[in-house]
């Protein structure tokens, strides 16, 4: 019998991102990230206060994932909530990260209590979710992500998937816009677990 499928984002949902990334920028590159808008790149400045050119951002992000991924700590209650869901559901982590980092991420998540399949994605998430539905043929599906465009993409390609907009990192809550295409907005895992269990029972 098919099981429900949980598709979860990683950065900002399962793992802290903003604080560890800011710490990396400071310690390795002497750059300061002060979150004043949700354009991460535009918020990074050098020691003289000059904004870093957006072209440098991909390399900075790649450097962070290459050497500092282990500094990303779990979001509170994420490992326990996913473990509870995994008793009756399949769990897949759908993360926008380059392929060569997806393997490290798989090992890193397993090391801190989240031993799930990881798919490295690039761009909108609606179609990859659709591919997962075709593969797993789940009885129901839930998608969790902190970025509104991914919920819009999910609504377009897989409208029957229940979408939870979660901004687990407090420093990003005032900056990320509402995801009007999501079905629910829940920022912490304890409440999200109860919500998902309710949705799956219904
Ligand atoms: Mg994210």
Please supply descriptive tags for the structure shown above.
single chain; Rossmann fold; 2 domains; six-stranded parallel sheet; 8 strands; globular
Short description:
42% of the residues lie in helices and 15% in strands.
Q: What is the CATH domain class of the largest domain?
A: Alpha Beta
Question: What's the end-to-end separation, in Å?
Answer: 18 Å
Q: So, CATH architecture of the largest domain? A: 3-Layer(aba) Sandwich
Within CATH, the superfamily of the largest domain carries the name HAD superfamily/HAD-like
Tell me the CATH topology of the largest domain: Rossmann fold
Strand order of the largest sheet: 5-4-1-6-7-8
Number of domains: 2
Mass-distribution shape: globular
Explain what you see.
This protein folds into 2 domains: 141 residues, HAD superfamily/HAD-like (Rossmann fold, 3-Layer(aba) Sandwich); 54 residues, no CATH class. It is built from 8 helices and 8 strands. A 6-stranded parallel β-sheet has the order 5-4-1-6-7-8, with helices on both faces. Strand 4, helix 4 and strand 5 form a beta-alpha-beta unit. Helix 1 packs across helix 2, helix 3 packs parallel to helix 8 and helix 5 crosses helix 6. The chain starts with a strand and ends with a helix. Bound molecules: magnesium ion.
């Amino acid at each position: 019998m098919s099981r429900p499928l949980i598709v979860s984002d990683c950065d900002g949902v399962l793992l802290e991102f903003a604080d560890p990334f800011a710490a990396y920028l400071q310690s390795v590159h002497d750059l300061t990230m002060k979150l004043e808008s949700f354009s991460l790149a535009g918020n990074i400045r050098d020691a003289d206060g000059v904004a870093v050119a957006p072209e440098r951002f991909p390399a900075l992000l790649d450097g962070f994932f290459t050497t500092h991924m282990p500094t990303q700590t779990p979001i509170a209650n994420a490992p326990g909530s996913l473990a509870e869901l995994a008793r009756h559901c399949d769990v897949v982590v759908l993360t926008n990260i380059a392929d060569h980092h997806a393997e490290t991420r798989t090992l890193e998540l397993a090391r801190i209590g989240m031993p799930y399949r990881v798919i490295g994605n690039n761009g909108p998430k609606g179609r990859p979710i659709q591919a997962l539905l075709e593969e797993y043929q789940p009885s129901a599906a839930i998608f969790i992500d902190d970025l509104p465009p991914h919920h819009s993409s999910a609504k377009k390609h897989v409208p029957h998937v229940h979408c939870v907009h979660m901004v687990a990192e407090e420093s990003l809550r005032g900056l990320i816009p509402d995801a009007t295409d999501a079905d629910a907005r829940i920022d912490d895992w304890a409440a999200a677990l109860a919500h998902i269990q309710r949705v799956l029972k219904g």
